[in-house]
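Page 47, continued from p. 46.
Same chain as before, 456 aa.
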Amino acid sequence: MKDFDVIIIGFGKGGKTLAAEFAKRAKNVAIVERSEKMYGGTCINIGCIPTKTLVHQAKIASGMKGLTFDEKSDFFRQAISLKEDVISMLRNKNFHNLADYPNVTIYTGMGSFISPNLVSVRTATDEMILNADQIIINTGAETIIPPIEGIANNPFVYTSTSLMEQTALPRHLGIVGGGYIGLEFASMFASFGSQVTVLEGYSELISREDRDIAACVRETLEKKGVVFRLNAKVQSVKHTERKAIVTFGDSLTNEVFELEADAVLLATGRRPNTEGLNLQAAGVEVDTRGTIIVDEYLKTTNPAIRAVGDVKGGLQFTYISLDDYRIIREDLYGDKKRRVTDRNPVSYSVFIDPPLSRIGINEDEARKQNLDVVIKKLSVMAIPRAKTLGETDGLLKAIIDKKNGMILGVTLFAPDSSEVINTVAIAMKTKQNYTFLRDFIYTHPSMSEALNDLFA
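Result:
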């Protein structure tokens, strides 16, 4: 048995940043990561970094007119190679950022609790027992595989992770699920040159957004050639030697259809990755969705064990994991003022083209709460910077409290929205009146200056 001050299971953003913090404070730290291809966590290896690298390359591809499909395929292979170079560099950097500490030990293997303070680690060649009074769980989330006939061992069925490992551009990509991940991949592959069909089981897309925003997103993606089939209940995914055959029914008409595709992406959501952790042995409880239950300081039902990142549910973003680190750091070594319950509002961006970004509540939520609000809208077509970019699809929308002028929420479906939303977030977090953004002096021409007109 090997003794440590802290054991961290999972090499994600929150865990690795905590590991460095503990190491700087002369603590002996063990990091347990099941795969050498996941050093650095989801974002670097299979999430934000690879997808956003490909999104950028897809945007370049969309501007290359008149190419044959073979030429588009060549560019796609180059994009995949570039993506691999980027993540390999970052993975190596993240490994050495911790491994180079003399008091940090990295174990590549499966971690599992034996008791509240003992963790078994099974590597490719050995099994060992680690002991620590403080343990952090940072195992992330994994793709939900739906119980659809023919999916298991189907060579044409992919998750978002495995699809990004393929070097061949599919002529026809079928996507099961029209949520944020599905739409991001639909936009990306359509820009690369694939024919894309999205099969969404519900009657509407991205239901958490206002209908005018969702309609604008759909219209924009349809201009790229994306085909949407709503109310589509997938029954099976069979295959021939060369293609997948997706059988789905229309839940309204009961008609049954078949879709042939070179690749099928499962974009059916994600769930906390807790399988094999043996949490019961540690006294760590989960809810009905398998999410680890934590308090406002990220302590589990066993106060000596904390959970950070996607495994504890909530918004699944790298910057949330980073804030989890800050909460624990301040709880252990600071003034304990940072808590899960006080970090709202938090913005998010979906990297379709253009990006969809939002913070706070939308109009539908405001109406359901019977709030007295003013709704502001601005078409991207009206923004000078958008015209100079030649990217005029999109819509900006703001929800303002009519009584006090406070900003309740903003949705930006526009070029550079992932940057502009941060300006809105600062204004909301510091409780500025909407006139602060309305009258602010921005550079020109810029997408930020559209806030002058949106709040006018």
